[in-house]
Amino acid sequence: MTVRHMLFEPHPSLASLVNNIMVAHITSDSSKEKLVFPFPPLCEHSIFFYPYDKPTIQDPVTGETESLYGCTIVGPQSDRIILSFGFDHLVVKIGLQPGGLYRLLGIPMNEMLDRHNFNGEDVFGLNIRNTIDAIAGAKDFNDMKIIAEDFILSYMARLKKIILIDRVIPDILRYGGMIKIDQLVKKACLSNRQFERVFKERMGLSPKFYSRLVRFSKAWLFKENNPSKTWTEVAYACDYFDQMHLIRDFKTFAGTNPKVISDALEKQPFSLNNKIFY
Fold this sequence. Notes:
Blueprint: E1 2-8, E2 18-27, E3 36-39, E4 46-49, E5 56-58, E6 65-67, E7 71-74, E8 81-84, E9 88-96, H1 100-105, E10 118-119, H2 121-124, H3 128-137, H4 141-153, H5 164-168, H6 170-174, H7 181-188, H8 192-203, H9 207-225, H10 231-237, H11 243-253, H12 258-266
Helix pairs in contact: 3-4, 9-11
């Protein structure tokens, strides 16, 4: 098995919309079983390109599986999935700033909640295939990054304008979900009711629920990067009052307990962690 991975800062002209661009190429022995990973709900909205083998996702509760599209859009998520890679897995991910997917698509994010497999062609049209083909034919990761940037640049003119709340939402990530919502409401110059409505439109979740998801995502990724840490240590490192509060969030967002996840993480040949925190 070979694993190559690079995380890029976006071009400055895209910084208001794009947080990061990730490129990874993972090849494995086709005579062996496919690589399978537990994947948490994360707070980042993204656009994924899969020019080679398409991954599959499985609902851990129902067992239902489906193949992802060549361009898959992932908005707000609140439950985990089981992710399975093909033997020649190339992925280019455009990680968007909070609220960026709403500004790009103009679709209220609550309509995309837990839609793990939203077809990019339905939004961007058949021209998306040109981008997928260009990535497949690129000579290196840097070229793939430029192709992804060119794709986003072609849609910058259609963006909804930034309003004050768009500059406020990233504070939830910066503070790991531990900033008081009242502070954000004041900074956004909105009433509580207006803030809740506009926030759900952009993020698909209520501000409090999204804050919980941010803290849970941070805990999952912290454990993935620090496998020797106990869940109690993880809980305190990620500002949980105690381990029981972390277990509560595991039941909400992962549908299981932390031990099941840590056992699965131990079997992973490498980490899937991403840069989603500021």
